[in-house]
Design brief:
The complex is a heterotrimer of chains A (371), B (539) and C (207). With 371 residues, chain A is of the alpha+beta class. Chain A starts with 11 loop residues before the first helix and ends with a strand. Chain A is built from five helices and 20 strands. Chain A has helices at 12-30, 37-46, 56-89, 108-136, 251-266, and strands spanning 145-152, 155-161, 168-172, 176-180, 184-190, 196-200, 205-209, 216-220, 225-231, 243-249, 282-287, 296-299, 305-311, 317-318, 321-323, 329-332, 336-337, 340-346, 352-357, 365-370. In chain A, strand 6 (196-200) and strand 7 form a beta hairpin. Chain B has 539 residues and is mostly helical. Chain B has one domain: Cytochrome c oxidase-like, subunit I domain (Cytochrome C Oxidase, Chain A), CATH 1.20.210.10. In chain B, helix 6 (195-226) runs antiparallel to helix 7, helix 6 (195-226) runs parallel beside helix 9 and helix 11 runs antiparallel to helix 12. The longest helix of chain B has 35 residues, at 64-98. Chain C has a single domain, classed as Four Helix Bundle (Hemerythrin (Met), subunit A) (Up-down Bundle). Chain C has five helices and no strands. In chain C, helix 1 (26-55) packs antiparallel against helix 4 (138-170). The radius of gyration of chain C is 22 Å and the shape is elongated. Classes of the chains: A alpha+beta (371), B mainly alpha (539), C mainly alpha (207). Chains in contact: A-B, B-C. Chain B binds chain C through residues 1, 105-106, 170, 173-175, 177-178, 181-182, 185-186, 208-217, 219-220, 223-224, 227-231, 236-239, 242, 245-246, 249, 495, 506, 516-521, 531, and chain C through 1-2, 4, 6-8, 12, 23, 26, 29-30, 33-34, 36-45, 47-48, 51-52, 55-56, 61, 134-136, 138-143, 146, 150.
């Protein structure tokens, strides 16, 4: 059988060009970030991996991911290489000759080989995955801090528990869980309504919150910082807005914060006025069904004023926060459960447009025009 | 070759009447294809709506409650009204021809199976018109979110539609199995049956065993929603996660229902354009059966983060299923190896399938590892995976099949240039849309969110994905133009324009109503090839 | 294409009658496969039942401990249903022997027994409702009525099938050589009967 003479580009090159163009376009877009090529290439490489882990369990998961990734990458290049080689090497111009290639029906030895080797690979991956799972899912007999995260439509609140693991010391209405670094945190999950999921990307971890089920897990954060999280199980219209943060601090700072929260919880409920005498003109604003009743507010420039805020969502925390055009927070009112109201004393603001937003529910937002 | 067509015994009525009352598997197959394409278009428009909203942070076009309807109906239409029926349509058209039968075993039930589908599609879409809108709890529809407290009438319509579609599928599966077991032409043993017919056989077994379980789960949800039932309500003794177990017991085999016939199509096309038999025909059959069987044992890998499944078992079975899938990939490469390859449009789509499905298979294996799944579950990484296997895999195979069998169905060839233009645009658009979703998922972007924080770092890749999705839409234009032009003035195809191997190419294009005037001797899985190349036919 | 040497002539087509067919008949195979799908449907319902029952603190719940009674209705109804499978079998055997009258008679009896079962079940439902056990009475009521209700729906389906077969039988469409449809209908009826025996055991006998 003579080797075919190729007298022009193979139509299969069409596919290769399409593939190459896709890859180039994709890389090009990623590289659009700025002029520093080395940093951009690094960020392209990084994009194939999860963010750096900030918990001990997360680091285990990241090590496992790396192994799985490289095994996958090698397999991809090997198999794709074979496909591309076959396409280029065995292309035959149509009508070149009528003879047929050898009509090989199969090869039993090859079938055995390419069954056994992948089988060995997946079994190895299974074993190391199981080992990592046991580490990640381990529970401590004596956690240092116990918290219950309550996922409800559409916010996260955190109940800090006494050592007995049941009694509530205080409830954190602001969507931020504060924990000490390098200590075992035991997190219980509860939902009074639908399925949710507790997900912190930098923990490389999530766990569903299922009504009627007591899901819980331990984690040890080994790096201070603030990490964003959000609900990862569709729970309704404002599912996307169920965001929270985890703030990991040194023990001393945690103790101080904890004492402050506990004292505030044990004190008699504050009167319906925030600290600082409310003064100036009063604007009314209300919240119901996870929404503000007004999309715009107006206030005079350079004058302190008051927002009379009514929270009509029973059992759901809201507040009013004011941010400037760059997203910097200028005022954060007390977060409280409905049905209740507060008078917020807003300091004088220069003329301009600001955003008012609920700290707990980022979908609740509007424009504050200060003139 | 002279064909003496039989004169019809009954005079034909109007074309519309013929098509609406037909029990001819060929016409029903074409009806399936057309109906499925309509819902591919509807599902695609819904996807464009999703991508439009996600292009930039902030809710620009729809409210979040409406957005949830968009992705729910997008997925439901694509899975239940497009891909499953489309592949059943190819099966309907090709299997009786491939096995030398005059029609399916139960032609009237065949027609019934088809007509249930447009009806079900209308029922599902009518959800957009009722108060509260269409179903919005995801195509998975988990309670408690899908219970009456949180979801309105659109969900009831969705349940009715899906149960109708499931019934249509089950009747179709019975039909395929009886046809394959009882109506093969003399000489066609099961081990000489074309591989596409084998994939339809295994798929039909999956449909038969799995789809009724979905029906039971959806009916339980319907009872909870409308008759005060307590199946999934933890407040009264029900179990929320029970639904997930019942649902995924069907829905995992379902993904094999969505991909095995597609693999069958690729397995028919590669040998034709490599001019060699399928490498490892028997191994392929074993692999298909293994995937089918193992497919029933992995369902809880969709539930690794629920905290209520026996993780090691499901992780092991999920890893194992990669092995027969790999066997298939190697057999496909083996088919091309040392062949004489040519690249008309069906073959180009088949090659696209191979690479895209390879990526989809590998990124799926990530989630087989439970701790890695803890990071990736319910993020855009999974969205990337499912689209690489379902779009890059099954949809590319659908286009491969369309270009391959259009000449047989209509007697005319589709235009090659337009086909290749479509492929390039679709290939680039597809990868631009879905490859960045790997990155987005790894970076922490969850699924099913109407909006995202502008400071999360997801803005650029979302915009890229949206641009890609528009390209996919654009790619449909050369396809539609191609179909319309070719129907009228495409090159005449003749019986066997591809010099292909199986029995459907032994009759005219299109075939007469009774399929065959005469059948060649059947001695292998390539009876037409054997007739045309007797020197190579020896086994 | 070479000359039509392997043309299919009528002689190579085996007449599709029971005496001449090879292996299982097409309608019977179709019915067996359909029954398989129905078994899986009930499997889903049973899986739900056992999961809920396994997770319940006590089963049956206190208020329903004594409400499910085998007599006077459900037990005798079960016996009637079992008898109906035997009368059906006698009917099919009659048909295969050529005794069409016997076939009609026995199938009619089978159908009547099925209808009686349904009536007795309906009365039983009414009694249970009056005693406070409703569909929405916790998981016990929900699972009971869903399981038995869908079984009843399948009995109705079986009754309709028997009715169609009877109608066609009276029109003379069946004989000792053509009995696919009566056989298929009887298979379905046997399936419905077996599901009931299982249900009855799980719901009434085991607790």
């Amino acid at each position: 059988m003579t080797t075919p003479r190729r007298t022009g580009p193979s139509p299969a090159i069409v596919i290769l060009i399409a593939g190459a163009l896709s890859v180039l376009a994709f890389l090009g877009i990623l590289l659009l970030q700025g002029p520093d090529l080395a940093a951009q290439l690094q960020s392209v490489v990084d994009s194939f991996f999860p963010p750096a882990a900030v918990t001990e369990q997360g680091r285990e998961i990241r090590n496992l991911y790396d192994i799985v990734f490289w095994v996958g990458a090698v397999i991809f290049f090997l198999v794709e290489g074979l496909i591309i080689f076959a396409v280029i090497r065995y292309w035959r111009r149509p009508g070149k000759s009528a003879d047929l290639p050898p009509q090989t029906h199969g090869n039993n030895l090859l079938e055995v080989v390419w069954t056994i080797i992948p089988l060995a690979i997946v079994l190895a991956l299974f074993v190391i995955s199981w080992q990592t799972l046991n580490t990640v899912d381990a529970r401590s007999a004596n956690p240092d801090v116990s918290v219950r995260a309550i996922a409800a439509r559409f916010q996260w609140t955190f109940e800090y528990l006494k050592p007995d693991g049941e009694t509530v010391e205080f409830t954190q209405l602001s969507p931020e869980m504060v924990v000490p670094v390098n200590e075992t945190i035991h997190l219980k999950l509860r939902s009074p309504d639908v399925n949710h999921a507790f997900y912190v990307p930098e923990f490389l971890f999530k766990r569903d919150v299922i009504p009627g089920q007591d899901n819980n897990f331990d984690f040890v954060a080994d790096q201070t910082g603030t990490y964003r999280g959000q609900c990862a199980e569709l729970c309704g219209a404002q599912h996307w807005a169920m965001q929270f943060t985890v703030r990991v601090v040194e023990r001393a700072e945690y103790d101080a914060w904890f004492a402050e929260q506990r004292a505030a919880a044990q004190a008699t409920p504050a009167p319906s006025a925030s600290p600082g005498a409310p003064s100036g003109p009063q604007i009314d604003l209300a919240a119901a069904n996870i929404a503000f009743d007004k999309a715009t507010l107006e206030a005079p420039a350079d004058t302190p004023f008051t927002i009379n805020f009514e929270n009509n969502d029973a059992g759901i925390p809201h507040n009013v926060e004011i941010r400037d055009a760059d997203g910097v927070s200028l005022f954060k009112g007390e977060i409280f459960n409905g049905v209740d109201s507060r008078l917020y004393a807003i300091p004088a603001l220069p003329a301009g447009d600001y955003t008012f937003i609920c700290t707990v529910h980022p979908n609740m937002t509007g424009t504050l025009s200060v003139r | 070759m002279a064909t003496t067509a039989l004169r019809p015994a009954v005079p034909a009525r109007s074309a519309l009447y013929e098509w609406v009352t037909t029990t001819d598997h060929k016409k029903i197959g074409i009806l399936y294809v057309i109906n499925s394409f309509i819902f591919f278009g509807i599902g695609g428009l819904l996807a464009l709506g999703v991508r439009a909203e996600l292009a930039f942070p902030g809710l620009q076009f729809v409210e979040d409650s409406a957005y949830n309807q968009l992705f729910t109906v997008h997925a439901s239409a694509m899975l239940f009204l497009f891909i499953i029926p489309m592949l059943a349509g190819f099966g309907n058209y090709a299997v009786p021809l491939m096995i030398g039968a005059p029609d399916m075993a139960f032609p009237r039930i065949n027609a019934l199976s088809f007509w249930m589908l447009p009806l079900a599609g209308i029922v599902m879409m009518s959800g957009f018109l009722v108060q509260g809108g269409a179903a919005a709890a995801g195509w998975t529809s988990y309670p408690p979110l899908a219970e009456a407290t949180y979801s309105g009438q659109g969900t009831d319509l969705w349940i009715v539609a899906v149960v109708l579609i499931g019934t249509s599928s089950i009747l179709g599966a019975v039909n395929f199995l009886v046809t394959i077991f009882k109506l093969r032409a003399p000489g066609m043993t099961l081990l000489r049956m074309p591989i596409f017919a084998w994939t339809i056989l295994v798929t039909s077994v999956l449909v038969l065993f799995a789809t009724p379980v979905l029906a039971s789960g959806l009916i339980m949800l319907f009872i909870d929603r409308n008759y005060g039932g307590n199946f999934f309500d933890p407040a009264t003794g029900g179990i929320a996660v029970l639904y997930q177990n019942v649902f995924w017991f069907y829905s995992h085999p379902a993904v094999y229902i969505m991909v095995l016939p597609a693999m069958g199509i690729i397995s028919e096309i590669l040998p034709v354009f490599s001019r060699k038999p399928l490498f490892g025909y028997k191994a392929f059959i074993f692999a298909t059966a293994a995937i089918g069987a193992l497919g029933f044992s992995v369902w809880a890998h969709h539930m690794f983060t629920t905290g209520s499944v026996f993780l090691p078992f499901f992780s092991l079975m999920t890893f194992l299923i990669a092995v027969p899938t790999g066997v298939k990939m190697f057999n496909w490469i083996g088919t091309m190896w040392r062949g004489h390859l040519t690249f008309p449009t069906p073959m180009i789509y088949a090659l696209g399938f191979l690479t895209m499905f390879l990526i989809g298979g590998i990124n799926g294996a990530f989630s087989a590892s439970v701790p890695v799944d803890f990071a990736l579950h319910d993020t855009y990484f999974v969205v990337a995976h499912l689209h690489y296997v379902l779009f890059g895999g099954s949809v590319f195979a659908v286009f491969a099949g369309l270009f391959f069998w259009f000449p047989k169905m209509t007697g005319r060839m589709l235009d090659e240039t337009l086909g290749k233009i479509q492929f390039v645009i679709m290939f680039i658009g597809f990868n631009l849309t879905f490859f960045p979703m790997h990155q987005l998922g790894l970076a922490g972007m969850p699924r099913r969110i109407a909006d995202y924080s502008s400071t999360a770092g997801w803005n650029d890749l979302n915009l890229v994905a949206t641009v890609g999705s528009m390209l996919i839409g654009v790619a449909m234009v050369p396809f539609l133009v191609n179909v319309l032009i070719s129907l009228r003035s495409g090159k005449l195809a003749g019986d066997n324009p591809w010099d292909a191997n199986t029995l459907e190419w032994a009759t005219t294009s299109p075939p007469p109503p009774y399929n065959f005037d005469h059948l060649p001797d059947i001695r292998s899985e390539r009876p037409v090839f054997d007739t045309r190349h007797p020197e190579a036919a020896a086994h | 294409m070479s000359a039509p040497t392997a043309a299919l002539t009528p002689a190579t087509h085996l007449p599709d009658t029971a005496a001449h067919r090879k292996g299982i008949g097409t309608p019977v195979l179709g019915m067996l496969l359909f029954i398989t799908s129905e078994v899986m449907f009930f499997a889903g319902l049973f899986a739900a039942y056992f999961s809920i029952r396994g997770a319940a603190p006590e089963w049956p719940p206190v208020q329903f401990e004594e409400v499910l009674k085998i007599f006077p209705l459900v037990g005798p109804a079960t016996v009637l249903l079992i008898i109906s499978s035997f009368t059906g079998q006698l009917g099919l055997r009659s048909l295969r022997r050529g005794d069409r009258t016997g076939f009609i008679r026995f199938y009619a009896i089978t159908m009547a027994l099925g209808l009686t079962f349904l009536v007795m079940q309906g009365i039983d439902y009414a009694i249970l409702y009056s005693e406070g056990m409703t569909l929405d009475a916790g998981t016990f009521g929900t699972t009971y009525y869903t399981l038995t209700g869908f079984h009843g729906a399948h009995v109705i389906g079986g009754v309709i099938m028997l009715g169609v077969v009877l109608y066609r039988g009276l029109a003379g469409q069946f004989s000792e050589r053509h009995y696919d449809a009566p056989e298929a209908a009887l298979l379905y009826w046997d399936f419905v009967d077996i599901v009931w025996i299982v249900l009855f055991t799980i719901l009434y006998v085991l607790p």
